[in-house]
Amino acid sequence: METKTKDYVSYKDALEAFSRAHEEPKWMLQLRLDALEKIEDLDLPVIERLRYNRWPLFQVPDLTGAPAAKSIDPFEFIEDKAEAARVIQTGNDTVIETLPDSLREKGVIFTDMHTALKEHPELVKEAYMSKAVKPDANKIAAFHAAFMNSGLFLYVPKNVEIEEPLEAVFIQNSLVEDAFIKHVLIYADTNSNFNYVEKFLTKGDEKNAANIVVEVITKAGAQVKFSAVDQLGLNSTVYFNRKGYTHRDSTIDWAIGVMNSGNVVCDFDVDLVGEGSSSDLKAVGISSGRQTQVIDSNVINYGNHTEGNIFQHGVIMDRATLTFNGIGHIIKGAKGADAQQESRVLMLSDKARGDANPILLIDENEVTAGHAASVGRVDPEEMYYLMSRGIEKTEAERLVIRGFLGKVISAIPLKSVRDELVHTIERKLTSR
Amino acid sequence: MAVLEIKNLHVSIEDKQILKGVNLKMQTGEIHAIMGPNGTGKSTLSAAIMGHPSYEVTEGEILLDGENVLEMETDERARAGLFLAVQYPSEIAGITNAEFMRAAINSRRDEDDKMNVMDFIRKMDEKMDVLDMPEEMAERYLNEGFSGGEKKRNEILQLLMIEPTFAILDEIDSGLDIDALQVVSKGVNAMRGEGFGSLIITHYQRLLNYITPDIVHIMMDGRVVKTGGAELAKQLEAEGYKGLMDELGLDFELVED
């Protein structure tokens, strides 16, 4: 399939047909067409310390609706858990969708985006690209808004508390050539409280672009614990935008493992809008081979007494690059706001490139803020201590790395997520 | 019977000479104590035996059953039977105590003979019991947030788990209250026997009330200046280092605490 980099408006008819085939509401088509017209004129988002204007991110997806020529067996990647609340998607298809009756009866919606647009168009409209990520924010957002071809909608009604995590697994189908333009919309209504876990994977080696937007909107008092393990493939060029938008006294806590194999920009943002709302953003990253991963975490305090925390640790091997930008921004008028961040990078190779870049922008006086950043090598004292107990150098190094990333991982509340991250790190480290 | 022999050992750190010809020989079945004022090189000796990267051996030999220890990496020394318990061990978050100790034990075993989890847990429970350590210490991160006393108990726990041939305890008694001191001593005494030798480095005679040494060495200014039996520690307690210096006709500045 042809992947043009301009003349996007020529896709207008194809998009209309796509929208019609999926019985999308009118507003959705309008949002797509408005965005389509803007792609050309908008700029790429500015990511500090990264030039990526030549990255092949603007691959137009197949809009014909024809099934993919090769399909994926999801059980290659997941276990069979009939009881859990789960949505599993391979490529653009939803292959498993389970929601316990107890949650359905409470009004929880956990379904693929096209179904949600058909069955709950007004609810989707309230939150979809209207608060967190705006379609005209930048070129990538506009491209996403126009060409989004699959996704997930999660709505948790007022006062509903869910103990067991809701789980989503997205397997990019790179057995075929097609763009992966996925949208996850999480809408937490007033005083709801739940855990959500997502995984992104790739099957196949085709060179594909992924343009993924995850929005989390929390209404007053809602508490969302969001966890993710990203493992997209070597030949996937990815722009990941996860963005939160908090109303009064609500909280979004993020725990994200950035463990992709290809070139990836992660734009993790939170707009702390409502008074007293807060967000804790924890990320661990591993870069290896020749890949570049940039994690741009951006927490903006708009509301009074908002609290933003960025805590990210990463490890770099081989000739890879890993950059952490931590941006804490306190807007004028956000009295009593707090912005903290810590970014640390551990380099395991002389040819690795690492960067930890703290940026604090403070436009208000009555606030607290702090940052710590470092780029370093394995501590020889720690190595010596482990080796003095008989542990071989390579094994000691592996333990030190796990320990370094463990500082972030141990602060993640959900044990299953901690285990998953440790397991993934272990696999990444032993495969080198 | 195993023998650890230190011959004419000279050690520098950042070009400053600390050890100026240490001679010492010990064998399994024996407990040796090294006493001496601050700054005389006691800890340098232990670090040099274990192969700390900051310490440079400029002259002399360390032999374990005739094998040249100085040619071995730190991990090889440990697997050859040496163990060093330190006062300030590294804190490593993200690795649990149990995981770490299992890795240490398994590093001594063949690929097809790794210790199974049940045996390991049983052994760890048993040894933690000896040291009055609460069960949850096994699942805490390695030394992270441990108090001084907990760290030292944890060092002794490793000693009991790993069961080395020779254990060097470097000022493991510093800062311990009597209860903790008794517990730590109980751990070391539990190891006492034909197949085990220990070199206890201490600043104070106090510890030696609980672990009676077979041989006591006094170290000053980078050398062993006197060797004797358990009574030497008592004499030192009574007369102080100054008295010993006068007796030996030594003359240099003592570093105060």
Main attributes of the structure:
heterodimer, A: alpha/beta, 9 helices, 38% strand, B: 257 residues, alpha/beta, Rossmann fold, six-stranded mixed beta sheet, 7 helices, 34% helix
Summarize the structure.
The complex is a heterodimer of chains A (432) and B (257). Helices cover 22% and strands 38% of the residues of chain A.
Description:
The complex is a heterodimer of chains A (432) and B (257). In chain A, 22% of the residues lie in helices and 38% in strands. Chain A has 432 residues and is an alpha/beta fold. Chain A has one domain (8-377). In chain A, the strands form 2 sheets. A 10-stranded mixed beta sheet of chain A has the order 2-1-5-7-9-11-13-15-17-19, with helices on one face. A 9-stranded mixed beta sheet of chain A has the order 3-4-6-8-10-12-14-16-18. In chain A, strand 1 (86-90) and strand 2 (93-98) form a beta hairpin. Chain B is of the alpha/beta class and 257 residues long. Chain B has a single domain, classed as Rossmann fold. Chain B has 7 helices and 12 strands. A 6-stranded mixed beta sheet of chain B has the order 6-9-10-3-11-12, with helices on both faces. Chain B has a 4-stranded antiparallel beta sheet with strand order 2-1-4-5. Classes of the chains: A alpha/beta (432), B alpha/beta (257).
Task: Give a topology summary.
The complex is a heterodimer of chains A (about 425) and B (about 260).
Chain A: H1 12-21, H2 26-39, E1 86-90, E2 93-98, H3 101-105, E3 109-112, H4 113-119, H5 121-127, H6 139-147, E4 150-156, E5 166-173, E6 182-188, E7 193-203, E8 208-218, E9 223-231, E10 236-246, E11 251-258, E12 264-272, E13 278-287, E14 292-301, E15 307-316, E16 321-330, E17 338-347, E18 353-362, E19 368-377, H7 380-387, H8 393-409, H9 415-430
Parallel strand pairs in A: 1-5, 4-6, 5-7, 6-8, 7-9, 8-10, 9-11, 10-12, 11-13, 12-14, 13-15, 14-16, 15-17, 16-18, 17-19
Antiparallel strand pairs in A: 1-2, 3-4
Helix pairs in contact in A: 1-2, 2-6, 4-5, 7-8, 8-9
Chain B: E1 3-13, E2 16-27, E3 31-35, H1 42-50, E4 55-64, E5 67-68, H2 74-80, E6 82-85, E7 92-96, H3 97-106, H4 117-130, E8 141-142, H5 148-162, E9 166-170, H6 178-191, E10 197-202, E11 215-220, E12 223-228, H7 230-248
Parallel strand pairs in B: 3-10, 3-11, 6-9, 9-10
Antiparallel strand pairs in B: 1-2, 1-4, 4-5, 7-8, 11-12
Helix pairs in contact in B: 5-6
